[in-house]
Amino acid sequence: YVIIDDKDLDNLPLPTAHAIDIEEFVPVDDVEPGLYYDSAYYVEPEELGRKPYHLLRRALEATGRMAIAKIALRDKEHLAALHPNGKGLIMNTLHWPDEIRSTEGLKGLEDEVKINPKELEMAKALIESLADSFDPSRYKDNYREAVMKVVRAKAEGEVIEAPEAPQPAKVMDLMEALRQSVAQAKKQRAGREKPAAETKRRRKAS
Description:
Helices cover 40% and strands 19% of the residues. It has 206 residues and is α+β, with helices and mostly antiparallel strands. It folds into two domains: 6-99, Ku70, Chain: A, Domain 2, CATH 2.40.290; 114-131 and 171-206. It has a five-stranded antiparallel β-sheet with strand order 1-3-4-5-2. Helix 4 runs parallel beside helix 6 (174-205). The chain starts with 5 loop residues before the first helix and ends with a helix.
């Protein structure tokens, strides 16, 4: 085997070792986020690079494109996408092509499944009943909260009891399941919107 130390890595003949090396500019829709995107980073300009930074941001906005680049992070070269975000730029590291699995061989994708028009309408109704703009503040990490609860309990010497496993749901008619889902979604939506409406009325009255 060969021993490689940090000094050897510092001397790698790669332009990405100390800077972002832009390869090309592609339409933003060309890169599928759910498949290729990995980690996200804010990109901050250096003092002397502020004008080129904002020039690039404005040009990307105007053309509807993003920059595909290479950069070295944590002793590894990454493929990345640079795109505008507000007044700045965000860099998403991308998976390399050989890291993307093909859908070939996955079961069920090519099945000829007959969809009842009523089932489709109910499914669409469920989607519409839960449709909203994305607001990340509405979500919380339940797993993290559960872990912290266990940590606090152990620190205080409490006995941690495992919760009962949920009973497996009975197989039921798809249409009935969709009807129940739509009804539940409408009930939850009404519960979220009612306090806001009451608050609005109170402010108007005052």
